[in-house]
């Protein structure tokens, strides 16, 4: 690749604003040619016309070099940031990593390392907003319905996040239009094009009244914090969210509604003070426990509110940001049996559905043998995001810790209250702890009915992946038979209730 040597060094033109492969190739060339960061200039094609040059290709004899994975992983995300200095920042770090500072990424106080991590965080946050705030409008095209959404990202995330929407809406035909880019999915392939205008996206569709009614119903005036609300859902997103049309009215009405709530509470008879449960638990655990939650008046709406809340919470554990999406429960409200597993695995994370991977297939077989219809049951998990350790191309399941279980427990409690099953079946230790608030030994408790913090009966059994880990085929067959027997017993229990 020819290089254009400027008086002050080399100018590199990248084909796109977030093209990591091109940046990486050019940067390798610059390092091999010993061009120091202050002599490298980075531009994006089309942004500064006239300055067209290419980075030098590594000379044939250049020794290959390697850089820490932690740098590459972060650089691949940071390059999507809209900061003009991002390429130079990355090249400066690469230069230092290859010139005697191999352990630079561990220097947590180094200003360049800190800056890199800030860029990564900002890009992740932007992606999270895109996942939560893209709203499709249905339009009738000549060849059938198509869904179109307008979104204004702060950073160059359109291409990187397109896969998220493909996985989520694989069977729809959709386009997301942003000021810089448009992304279209026809059910088979992605197509990227130039940006568009908000006016290209229709403002209304039949779903809007539903979104608005839903938002108004979950809006709690007593919790109104306009500052936090604006930070979490900046005004620029309001315009494309159908439910946002309700925000000004709901905000204006909030003080009156709070006053009414206070009046109603004062007029109501004093509730009897409740004896705290499980006094043997340490105080911080008690604080995090849900008090028994009444079944909501509209369970379907309550479950929808739960979903929406999980999609946009700012305080999710760090691992949630690496997951593709939260995985919600599925099944009918009022199901006789509700199964609670530990957390979604790799396949569940991608599909956005619980129990569709290896453990789910084993559970399906056991349910079939026990005569339980999967579609009649409600299946969910104690933890709603996939927690994993990335190793090369694989994502290795990491067990949730006590803090993770405590964090998601209120969601599970609300889900159980909304589904209101006759019997909850806990699959494995995490589910049993999440439901009961106690660390009960699974193998000793299996087959017994204990009480959830919310008062519901919980039938304890093992997790299907426990069966997959049994040492040999014989043990697995026996373990499977015992598991099927547990499922039969759970079903029989619902019939006797
Ligand atoms: N394991 C679980 O606990 N839940 C799932 O959804 C899948 C595997």
From TrEMBL:
The keyword Translocase does not apply. Residues 328-488 form the Uracil-DNA glycosylase-like domain. Coiled coil: none annotated. It comes from the Bacteria. Pfam families: DUF4130, UDG. Keywords: DNA damage, DNA repair, Hydrolase. This is UdgX family uracil-DNA binding protein.
